[in-house]
Amino acid sequence: MQKLTPNTMLLRGSPHTLIHTGREGITVVDPGHGHKRAKQLQKETSKLDKPLHNILLTHSHSDHSNNACKLGATRVLAHPHELPPLHYVPLRTALTFGLPLEEGEVLLLKPDPVPCAEPLSEAPEGVEAIPLPGHTSGQLGFLVEDNILYAGDSLFGDQVINRYGVLYHMDTFTAIETLERTLLPRAEEGILIIPSHGPPSRGPEAVKLIDANLERLRDTVEAVKQMLTQTPLSIPQISAGLHKRYGVTPSPTSSLLFETGIRGILAGLLQRGEAEPAIVEGELRWRTPA
Length: 290
Ligand SMILES: [Zn+2]
Prior knowledge:
Layout: E1 2-5, E2 8-11, E3 17-21, E4 26-29, H1 35-46, E5 52-56, H2 62-65, E6 75-78, H3 83-87, H4 89-97, E7 117-119, E8 127-131, E9 140-144, E10 148-150, H5 158-164, H6 172-188, E11 192-194, H7 204-230, H8 235-245, H9 252-271, E12 276-280, E13 283-287
Helix pairs in contact: 6-7, 8-9
The protein binds zinc ion.
């Protein structure tokens, strides 16, 4: 447990969990997944001598949300767009992996439904909800004490960038805008930026991490555009090309996640008139418009 200020702590993990004590009670951001994390949270919050009032979810992904209904919080809140996938697991897995699965090895962890989640209309006292769309459409960051921003999966630590190659975002173009317009100015103000998966940083170090994320996302978009100028390609062919580019050994899970990210990039390119679908030899492929 890392004490950030007298009222705010970070339980390190992947994802990290933020614990903030306010006048009305305790607020927990992203309670994570697994029995061990739930027990740790119960232990730490019981020491604080205040009720667990709010659980805030940055987004619906199971690694962030699985424990949300298991801790006895008064309320569990998320952006309205995140509620359908929180409530209904096959929708969550269909959006992320392209397969409406309730469980299975390919998902890495078993998703739990989060039926208690409600729409966040107003953030708890002392907390500001900041829209950070791209990774998912309803992703929120939470600013506490005016200088600590828990930024969810809007950016990733260096290790994640190097290990996974293609950064998972449902809509990469929107994720780039979020980094440029929302996170970068906050980092330049000197606010502590906490990615869910990676070390917290502030000032020049935070700016450097945002730049590294931007560089990778722009590189992925450019690589896809470049591939389509050569010959029409299917989504699995583009995925194979990106695995190679970033030196990642393909697995069923990495391929499913890459393909979701590639669909988001192709949708953006289609809207911009920079890619178009075509049937070649009976197969859906993508190419640069003539
Ligand atoms: Zn996520």
